[in-house]
Write a structure and sequence with these properties.
By secondary structure, the chain is α+β, with helices and mostly antiparallel strands. It has one domain (about 5-179). It has helices at about 5, 20-25, 40-45, 75-80, 105-115, 115-125, 125-135, 145, 170-179; strands at about 55-60, 70, 95-100, 160-165, 165-170. The strands form 2 sheets. Strands 2-1-3 form a 3-stranded antiparallel sheet, with helices on one face. The chain has a two-stranded antiparallel ribbon with strand order 4-5. The longest helix is centred in the middle third of the chain and has 11 residues, at about 105-115. It is globular, with a radius of gyration of 17 Å.
Length: about 180
């Protein structure tokens, strides 16, 4: 993905060519942020796509507890793991923990779970983190009235999230250690 393609306003930064990008493009008039990456993130050198994105999939057992976790570094492998042949049901649930983002992972999760593209745009922009870092209100924080109508919450956190015995660990490294 070239620098020019990130500024093309056609949602290339968000998803590869396909139905999810088409959905984002159709919503761009209502939410212009979908068309391009966050300018501040680019100025501050935040890499996109994320460096080595990966997903950890946890499936619960019918009786309780989780089966062994599966880690995916390839979006197509994650798509296969989440395919209808392996559904969650009333006695089984699936939890996906994503570390880093890429357009390919966004597409897989967005299509499979019906996640609105705005959720990924908000995650990429990390509103709260920016507001705290600058010690001033962020101009792009959503209004409370608009947030209460959404069925998701975007959470921002920094890395590393935990320090164990002097070594820094990310969320997936911690889960891999515990699993």
């Amino acid at each position: 993905m070239t620098h020019d393609s990130l500024h093309s306003h056609n949602c290339e930064w968000l998803a590869p060519e396909g139905p999810y990008r088409a959905l984002a493009q159709s919503l761009r008039a209502a939410d212009p942020r979908l068309g391009h990456r966050d300018v501040d993130s680019e100025k501050n050198g935040v890499p996109w796509p994320g460096v080595n994105p990966k997903a950890l999939v946890l499936r619960c057992k019918a009786v309780g507890g989780f089966m062994d976790p599966s880690t995916y570094t390839n979006a197509e492998a994650l798509r296969e793991a989440l395919s209808p042949a392996k559904p969650s049901g009333p006695k089984c649930r699936t939890v996906v923990i994503l570390e880093g983002l890429s357009p390919e992972f966004i597409e897989v999760l967005g299509i499979h779970y019906g996640i609105h593209p705005t959720m990924f745009a908000e995650h990429e922009r990390s509103h709260l983190t920016k507001a705290c870092r600058r010690l001033e209100p962020a101009a792009d924080l959503p209004l409370p009235a608009s947030v209460c109508t959404r069925d998701y919450v975007a959470l921002a956190f920094g890395f590393p999230i935990l320090e164990i015995e002097g070594s820094e660990r990310t969320a997936l490294q911690l889960i891999d250690t515990l699993g």
